[in-house]
Queue: 4 jobs
Job 1
Amino acid sequence: MELIHDRKRYKEEVKTCTRCGRDLHETYPHELCPICMELELFNQVKDYIRSNEDVREQDVAEKFNIPIRKVREWIREGRIQYKGDTADKISGVVCRSCGKPIAFGNLCPMCHSLQQLQVVRSFKKPSETAGEMHFIGKEKEK
């Protein structure tokens, strides 16, 4: 009987995230869990970028007191993009293939197109006999 009573007491002391309901430690100082806090911060950053014309990653980092690498990580992930042609203003975010400054993702549009062509080409194998009809998933009978 005492064991059940202890479980009830434990449940009362457990703190939960107000957004997602995850259990938090009783000494955790915030109402939101770290994942929800990051999501909230990201949404605030996104709104700030949308409402300001010539904002750079340094401005975002200073405004929200976050490291510049965090802003650049969101850019590389393709989660945020600066307005207009601002790739030259963003320092440190470059195409991973050619090194050209970019404002979004990991690849510049040219390298992205080339990569897509390579993917398509890798699926197309030169046929042994031209002009034959081929069916996907069927092996050639010998």
Note: The helical segments are 2-13, 34-51, 57-64, 68-76, 109-123.
Job 2
Amino acid sequence: MTIEVAWFGALCDDDYEFLGVPEPALRSSWDHCSDIVKTADRNGFDNVLLPSGYTLGIDTVAFASAIATHTENIKLLVAVRMGEMHLPQLARQLATIDQMSGGRLNINIISSDIPGEKLASEPRYQRTAEWMQVLRSLLNGESVDFHGDFVDLAIDPPRVRTVSGTSPPFYFGGFSEPAKETAAAHSDVFLTWPDTVAAVAETVTDMRQRAERHGRELRYGLRSHVIVRETEAEARAAAQHLISKLDTDTGETIRKKSLDAASVGVQRQSALREEADDGGYAEPNLWTGVGRARSGAGAAIVGDPDQVAAKLEAYREVGIEAFILSGYPHVDECDLFAEHVLPKLDHGPLS
């Protein structure tokens, strides 16, 4: 089975040599983030996640429209927060980006709180479900007559259409009950965060059963960090180098910046760190140290090229078809992964 291998665009101010020690050259900016994406494109990655963080970095949709004209082959996985923008305008913007990129748009659905607002989990995911339904219809070129709790809209689709004439796939991650049910009913690719292979297998099984109850099938992706070096000892040393200047208070401050810092998924990443051995390894080649200074995906696949490839294969065997990877600094690790691991993988964009 061919897998999709994606990189991470770090628009959300998430790039360091030493976790917890920001460097001006690695802060979220057009110059730096476009360098990351162009590096991933040049290295042959299939897709790149362009994340969204209101207080943390530059705007995702604006960035995507610009980088579409500076890349050639890589898909652009554009994160958009449901409820944050006017829905018909968002559909028009996304269709325009798809045209500008020659049909290379994917969409990452974000359901965290709108900046400045708080909403309980269940109604927040109800809002997300309504937005996903209407956004897909508009991107499919369909007129909408929808009257829900959060969307009340009767409108024709925008004249601008995607290259295919249909909606790009929706990638979606979330671990609460409302999140999983929303994903099962409305997403195309369900994303999980790094965990033991057995735990990831349980998540895939759970989501397959939920999707079947909705008469649907999903594909599955894993969002993880990676540290690859020529030897395992060098990779482990690089992991320790990354956290060598991190103190506890700084790490906690970084984790709390994210709008999803209290989510069920983040809580599971914290539990994974607590279950790890004294070196921070939850199981062979799965290191949780990166989660000490990061909300969200809080573990890294660490090892030599064969070990990293084998770990990805283990996840593939339990149902993962797409990997969204990152490393610190993002340009450097992108080059290392492309040199040492990417040639070992049978990969290509999800069809």
Note: The chain has one domain: 4-344.
Job 3
Amino acid sequence: MWQNLGFVVVGLTAGVLSGVFGIGGGLLIIPVLVYLFGMTQHLAQGTTLALMIPPIGIFAAWAYWKQGNVNIAAAAFICLGFVFGGWVGAKFANAIPELMLRRSFGVLLAVVAAKMMFGK
């Protein structure tokens, strides 16, 4: 029971941050599942992808859309690419060792953080 409550708290926190910053599950949910809930990197990534199947961001996207801050065409084309890219990426990720995947994920987060902080 407590674990499920923890999952709800993680979801609420990620939802708020997603609504504020437009971030996805990778930034918060995956590390929390790995370090607080003891999941493997593969399990955390698969779980995070599974939670994106329903339209979890529908109300946040609607709030942005009402303010004129959504490009529907761009979102549709990105979604199309994401469907196929996600499948290819998942096949690749499941074929590499856990430690390599975790370290690669950390490098990606560090590169994005550095670019956001120090880039133009």
Note: Residues 3 and 37 are 8 Å apart (CA to CA).
Job 4
Amino acid sequence: MSIDYIATPALILNRSRLTRNADRMSARLKEMGVHLRPHMKTAKSADVARLATKDHFGGVTVSTVAEVRYMAEKGIKDIFYAVGLSPGKVAPLAEIQGSTEAVVTVLTDNVAALNAVAAEAARLDASFPVLVEIDCGGGRAGLVADDPAIIEVVKAIAAAPNLEFAGIMTHAGQSYHCNTTDEMAEVAEVERSTLVEVGEKLAGLGHPCKTLTTGSTPTAAHAKSMEGITEARPGVYMFSDVMQAHFGWGTIDDIAVSVLATVIGHRTDLDQILIDAGGLALSKDRGMDSRDKNIGLGLVCDVTAQPIQGLYVDDSHQEHGIIKAAPGSSIPWDDLPIGSRVRVLPVHACMTAAAHEYYNVVDEGPDGQEDYATLTIWKRQNGWY
């Protein structure tokens, strides 16, 4: 088998890099004394989940009902659905628990929503452990640490016969706005201390927290302490991407996913190359623009996934990607004739992987080069239900 036989655009997953990334985070969190509950919203693959949890624990975090069902049917029985639960999703989750014997932990930050969920759970005679979301500065969902509504939500959970108060969670989304590892460590400490503070307050009011769970790869990678925390839920660390390499989680050589594309056009008049991977294959995430304008939608590599000096995907249309060269570099036209192949390292692996239905999985041989004799296919669970 050769990479030349893979139809493009295609998502390539280097299992050797994936394994190294997974083992590195697993070892780090074990050393820090917290459980690893990997977030599978990036990979959406039971094969990846098994690899990421092979040494210990086994529970996973997911972000859609479809992922809950898929993971449960693949034999993973401890699942945290980490999106605020609405009453309309109680029935499918109850059905999944009943048919697979999985335990699905759910999330809330609102008394009214919680009461509606509790009523639906009682109607269906379904039971769920519930975490309460705390906002540690990310400004997305959750309740800030001094909000008196926290205790009201916890009391509502405790009063619901079909629900169990399981603890509190947070996600330091603001870590993605940091520029240095020291800044990420500072955010990680805010994440940790906020959750511990709320946990101690709840325990003092008679509501001990079994679980205090943090999230995000930047904070899991750079936290200096996780004292008081029981588990962490990083996700993109398994694949890494250009953004994570910039944040100090490994290097470009640790990125495990890439998009294989074919050169379909030369525009020498515009000094650009066209490839058959556009916005629907790469995503349009430009998360590095504020840090480096010459990364665009991804770094361009040769077929062995080695970066080609200065080349990046500058823009995209639906099925066209536009490659340009950074100032001081030039396009090697002769090395990239029409019909040749390139690999694009994603800026944000979560969004890029979401565009594909499956992974083309390869291992590295003893020489460190990818061995396409090992090629296999791993399915992804896309969609929401």
Note: The chain has a mean pLDDT of 97.
